[in-house]
Design brief:
Helices cover 28% and strands 28% of the residues. By secondary structure, it is an alpha+beta fold. The chain has a single domain, classed as Alpha-Beta Plaits, CATH 3.30.70.560. The strands form 3 sheets. Strands 1, 2, 3, 4 and 5 form a 5-stranded antiparallel sheet that branches.
Length: 151
């Protein structure tokens, strides 16, 4: 099975409810199960500050789906939660990002792995550090602990 880390965020329409709800839904994706989940973190939004703070988490899943199949499934869940892609870094009911998929690096029209910018995002690195071991390394970027020190 493939080891995948997914970032989850919400700052609209009851964020805590959205996150707990989507966790149950992720566990229902075929050939997929949540192995670990971080605590929930409240963080300021990237971009426009005139929106509510985000609630963020990172989960580790095991899946038999390939990266594009998984992306399709996650986008179905976003749609079920009324995710609208209207404004970059705008408010969202739910945001599901494939952060890391095994140890691969890839870039296609609709998917980049590791997720772009994750090495600068405290709301990704801190929960990722919480659920991985001290020496965990992100392909292309290095140890999570070193990335956190550089923030």
């Amino acid at each position: 099975m493939n080891q995948v880390f997914i970032g989850i965020g919400s700052n609209k329409n009851h964020p805590y409810f959205r996150i707990y709800s989507v966790l149950k839904q992720i566990n229902r994706i075929k050939s997929t199960r949540i192995v670990k989940k971080s605590s929930l973190y409240e963080t300021k939004p990237l971009g426009p500050q005139s929106q509510p703070n985000f609630i963020n988490a990172v989960i580790e899943i095991k899946t038999n789906l390939n990266p594009h199949e998984l992306l399709d499934e996650l986008q179905v869940l976003e749609k079920q939660h009324n995710r609208k892609r209207t404004k970059k870094w705008g408010p969202r009911s739910i945001d599901l990002d494939i952060l890391i998929y095994n140890r691969i690096t890839m870039e296609s029209r609709d998917l980049i792995i590791p997720h772009p910018g994750l090495e600068y995002r405290e709301f990704v690195l801190i929960p990722l550090y919480e659920i991985t071991n001290y020496g965990y390394e992100i392909p292309k970027y290095g140890k999570v602990s070193n990335l956190i020190k550089n923030l």
